[in-house]
Amino acid sequence: MRSLLPLLLLPLAAFAAEPRPLIIAHRGASGYLPEHTLAAKALAYGQGADFLEQDVVLSQDGVPVIFHDTHIDTTTDVARKFPGRQRADGRFYALDFTVAELKQLNVTERFNPQTGKAAFPQRYPVGVGSFQVVTLEEEIRFIQSLNRSTGRHVGIYPELKAPAWHRKEGRDLAAAVLPILRKYGYDAKESACFVQCFEYAEIKRLRGELGWTGKLIMLLGGKGQGPGETDFAYLQTDAGLAELAKLVDGIGPPIGSYVTGKSPAERRVTDLAARARRAGLKSHPYTLRADELPKCVATVDELLAALFTEAKVDGLFTDFPDLCLKR
Ligand code: CA
Predict the structure, then answer these.
(1) Which residues are within 5 Å of ligand 1 (an ion), measured at CB?
(2) In a domain, 52, yes or no
(3) Catalytic residue positions, numbered
(4) CB of 306 within 8 A of CB of 273?
(5) Residue 101, Cβ neighbours under 10 Å: how many?
(6) Distance 198 CA to ligand 1 centre (A)
């Protein structure tokens, strides 16, 4: 008589086939500690995030460093340490400082350099603690070392910031970043690494001229025109998604592209995740912030249910990895 065991195991196997969405720590556990510090990355790691995000720009001496913006005056004490080194627009840029100089800065919670006020008043206080600027290579070594000591396999999620701006400045950001990713084994499709970018021209260049073979995510703004001649509206149409599917593994649009509405009563889940899935693309929306929820939800759990259960996205950028993992 044939065993019934395979039949009994079927529902379990079907359940196991649907993994939970990837939790991507947006600039680290930045809801709790200053963004892009190793402390914020370690906390996100400890909270159980699957991927830790790096925003990458170049220093004056051509080293990929971790900053969300090309300017660095909203997250460091550069204005106090290097007075007079700002450009005509009043901003201080990573590209105008060597790594040795950047290492002299103290990284702090994000603030408005005009008023000194915190961007998120309920978060870690501005100016407290000593945190250093981190290079891409330092952060990769930190995460790989944690993977070694914990036995886990947490991945990296580097974003190439403003490649067109870097090129205007005579610099090639991707050409500096890719050799580092290759050196640390992130260039295969199965590697625990997603490279992300908002500029379509650069995405095409990564797959073409630069021969990048690892995973790629096309970041999308909500609507309209993006940087580097990127047409966000077109790329979210079925034709645009089909075109993208030839180059990238997934898309990273704002949460509002998946769940909309002026109030919880008017909440509506869009068909973007379903259309992307049909095109063969993953959906990794940004950014769940417990202290900046969209109007269409009242709680973090409502937003998670809408994104995970209704829209069925494949991953989520969040400043609060712990809140997304406790469901
Ligand atoms: Ca980013």
Answers:
(1) 55, 159
(2) yes
(3) 26, 68
(4) no
(5) 18
(6) 9
